[in-house]
Write a sequence for this structure.
């Protein structure tokens, strides 16, 4: 019978296996400084709640779920700041959940159009798509992050995908299946 | 474009900085542990005081909250009523329903007003609903505002937790803060009546310097059954923002005339083939409510009514 790993060892394993992914998740959704803070916050929460972090693969989904909440709180704080400054503009709000320009490398104008279309979607639908395409989570894994079944994820992604396709078609974003290397972007 | 192609476009638009794996801000384990050490005292203290501030793992929320909050959200979303609870003999100032503005007020103009009286707050409330200005509506509430719903069953809940993990599809995250909470439930309710053509949501009277008593009026609502009474509200207003919103709900049948809503659905199908019925309706008698559909429905309903 093996000995249970110490808290330090468990935490070290969590860090080594998941920190880069969690930081990437935050970088896709927040400015760099805020993303680094958010990633650290996720692991501070993990340290505090280490006894509640599930073992094995589910630990990754647990961390994503916490990251989702932490990023949500960041957006909330930023929204509150905006309100206090009376600089509320709907356009700004609609783009509030997209990683701001200083943190992203937008290689093509089409990417901007895609991110704009994403910003017009319901936040949950947007997050479903991003978790699938950017974090490359399976539907079952996304279900764990959202607390819903994989089947529910299937259905909601189906609907969200159709909506996104309509939005992109409306903005005439037509993307080839592959972009030739060195081709015009 | 198919939805697979749309997903692929999203993959290619991944905004992750190319140097994300570099040293800029990437914490080593040692640095992370140092950070934890720095915060441990505060964290432990805070955890003892208020464990609820920590983002919980998905499974930590009490399961009894699910039916309670989902039920309450459904009640709020479905609803409607007007009980005449707060009418008295000494009739204080009464603010009449605000007519629809001739121009759409912007968030900034709505919020630039200084500290508002309770009546002014409820006046702005009507303006915001009529204008579809959900940002201004949300800004009328203090960030610490409490939202209490008293239903006819005697159940009461004070909703200050995120609903997003429990009922992620309902209501909409209207204020876009990443949380679906009581504020969104309130805005969802207002958005629903706004979509149905309502030009004035509530009529309020001022009880004292910090309290307003209101009843929903739904003036201009295209589908409300006339015999259905409306909800009443009691608002506590401090420094110009709503700090508590108590909603008294009286259960009733569907407050909407489903014959009318289905007629409207069929009219849209027949006369607006360029519009997506799936996007505009949840089913033949239920309008889909979202920031995108509310202004569309308002315009279409006006046209439908004009055609008799």
């Amino acid at each position: 019978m093996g000995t249970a790993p110490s808290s330090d060892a468990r935490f070290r394993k969590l860090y080594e296996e998941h920190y880069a992914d969690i930081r990437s998740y935050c970088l896709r959704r927040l400015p760099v400084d805020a993303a680094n803070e958010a990633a650290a916050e996720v692991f501070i929460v993990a340290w505090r709640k280490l006894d509640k972090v599930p073992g094995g693969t589910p630990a990754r989904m647990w961390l994503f779920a916490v990251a989702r909440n932490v990023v949500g709180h960041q957006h909330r704080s930023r929204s509150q700041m905006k309100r206090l400054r009376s600089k509320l503009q709907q356009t700004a709000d609609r783009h509030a959940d997209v990683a701001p320009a200083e943190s992203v490398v937008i290689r093509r104008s089409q990417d901007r159009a895609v991110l704009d279309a994403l910003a017009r979607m319901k936040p949950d639908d947007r997050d479903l798509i991003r978790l699938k395409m950017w974090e490359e989570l399976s539907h079952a894994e996304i279900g764990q992050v959202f607390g819903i079944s994989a089947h529910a994820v299937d259905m909601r992604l189906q609907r969200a995908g159709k909506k996104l396709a309509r939005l992109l078609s409306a903005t005439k974003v037509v993307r080839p299946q592959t972009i030739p290397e060195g081709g015009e972007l | 474009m198919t939805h697979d192609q749309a997903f692929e476009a999203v993959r290619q638009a991944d905004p992750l900085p190319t140097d994300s794996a570099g040293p800029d801000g990437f914490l080593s384990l040692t640095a992370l542990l140092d950070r934890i050490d720095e915060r441990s005292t505060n964290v432990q203290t805070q955890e003892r005081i208020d464990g609820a501030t920590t983002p919980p793992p998905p499974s930590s929320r009490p399961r009894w909250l699910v039916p309670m909050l989902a039920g309450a959200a459904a009640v709020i979303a479905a609803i409607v009523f007007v009980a005449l609870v707060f009418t008295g003999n000494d009739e204080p100032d009464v603010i009449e329903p605000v007519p629809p503005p001739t121009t759409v007020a912007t968030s900034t103009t709505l919020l630039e007003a200084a500290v508002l009286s309770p009546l002014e707050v409820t006046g702005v409330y009507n303006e915001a609903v009529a204008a579809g200005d959900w940002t201004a509506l949300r800004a009328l509430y203090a960030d610490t505002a409490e939202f209490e719903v008293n239903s006819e069953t005697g159940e009461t809940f004070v909703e200050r937790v995120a609903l997003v993990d429990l009922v992620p599809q309902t209501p909409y995250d209207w204020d876009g803060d990443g949380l679906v909470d009581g504020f969104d439930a309130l805005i969802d309710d207002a958005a629903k009546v706004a979509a149905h053509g309502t030009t004035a949501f509530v009529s309020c009277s001022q009880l004292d310097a910090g309290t307003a008593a209101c009843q929903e009026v739904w003036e201009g609502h295209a589908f409300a059954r006339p015999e259905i009474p409306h909800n009443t509200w009691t608002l506590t207003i401090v420094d110009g923002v709503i700090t508590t919103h108590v909603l008294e709900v009286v259960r009733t049948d569907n407050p909407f005339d489903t014959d009318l809503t289905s007629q409207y659905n069929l009219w849209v199908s027949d006369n607006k083939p360029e519009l997506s019925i799936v996007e505009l309706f949840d089913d033949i008698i239920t309008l889909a409510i979202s920031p995108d559909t509310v202004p569309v429905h308002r315009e279409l309903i006006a046209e439908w009514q004009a055609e008799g």
